[in-house]
Design brief:
The structure is a single chain. 40% of the residues are buried. The strands form three sheets. A nine-stranded mixed sheet has the order 5-4-1-6-11-8-12-10-9. Strands 2-3 form a two-stranded antiparallel sheet. The protein has a two-stranded antiparallel sheet with strand order 7-13. With 297 residues, it is an alpha/beta fold.
């Protein structure tokens, strides 16, 4: 594969969590394999990586997730046989055959920073992207592609952000920002960040969502990061170490609609929205949803 001009060739997809908000379904199947309409949650992360020009994926898995691991390693004739003559076969086979996937395990759920650290050997010292697959974004240009374009003008750490209303801010890492020189109104310079603040303590309403670009130095910063919120190793704290040591850090307010598919209602919203948006299913999906609303009174 030809190296990109920005030096980034790998996307780390973090999928080692236990999916407790989807119990009891996740007793039997990993959260990342639950379908958003007719495609697994993980499919959208793989698709975004490929459509952003990143053909090497490091998948952070965990013990007990062999179903997910089998999904990302099925290739060639075996994949073609499994798909058969299904209409999605050319799209799915083209995507899966275009990606090289390395699987590493997070054996204990010790936080997002700890999960990303497990990719250190597979990534090395080069910059890389991170996708959290339960943050699904419907965007004309993939979020990572948008962020990579900004990264070329503003090298350093990049985090995807969106405006978060009210009390919900306490569930996010939150950035304090200032304008940057230049014409890209979606890029902000980060002057501070805090993990899961109370509303009164939040430095802004810009919450970090599941897209990142990191230098290889993030791995050393994670190793130096003590447990923080929820007694976990928070990636926000590791980023703040590098920022204070001089690494330029930017927030990118991406263009697109994000669905928090990491909880059942957000997952339902995403599935309904995707079904309504597809020309081959929109009419039937709308009729079914209207019928369900009518029956519910």
């Amino acid at each position: 594969m030809n190296e990109r001009q920005d030096g980034i060739s790998k996307a780390v997809i973090v999928a080692g969590g236990r999916g407790t908000r989807f119990l009891p379904a996740t007793l039997a199947i990993p959260k990342e394999i639950l379908p958003i309409f007719d495609r697994p949650m993980l499919f959208y992360a793989l698709e975004e990586a490929a459509n952003s020009g990143l053909k090497e994926v490091v998948l952070i898995s965990a013990p007990g997730k062999s179903v997910m691991e089998n999904y990302v390693t099925l290739r060639g004739e075996a994949l073609a046989k499994a798909l058969g003559e299904h209409p999605s076969a050319p799209e799915v086979q083209g995507l899966m055959d275009s990606l090289s996937v390395t699987i590493v395990h997070q054996n204990e759920p010790l936080g997002l920073g700890h999960a990303i650290l497990q990719a250190a050997d597979a990534v090395g010292d080069e910059p890389f992207a991170v996708i959290l697959p339960d943050d699904i974004v419907d965007a004309e240009t993939p979020v990572l592609a948008q962020m990579l374009a900004a990264y070329r003008d503003y090298p350093g750490i990049h985090v995807g952000v969106e405006r978060v209303p009210g009390e919900a801010i306490s569930a996010y890492g939150v950035v304090d920002v200032e304008p940057v020189d230049g014409d890209n109104e979606r890029v902000y310079r980060v002057t501070g960040m805090v993990e899961k603040p109370e509303l009164a303590d939040a430095p802004s309403d810009l919450g970090i969502v599941g897209r990142y670009i990191f230098p290889g130095a993030i791995f050393d910063a994670i190793r130096r990061t003590p447990p923080g919120a929820k007694n976990e190793i928070q990636i926000t704290d590791a980023m703040e170490i590098l920022r204070r040591e001089g690494t330029p850090t930017f927030a990118f307010a991406f263009d697109g609609v994000r669905y928090d598919a990491g909880n059942p209602l957000g997952h339902l919203r995403a599935a309904a929205s995707f079904a309504l948006a597809r020309p081959d299913t929109s009419e039937q999906a709308r009729a079914m949803l209207e019928e369900a609303l009518s029956q519910a009174g």
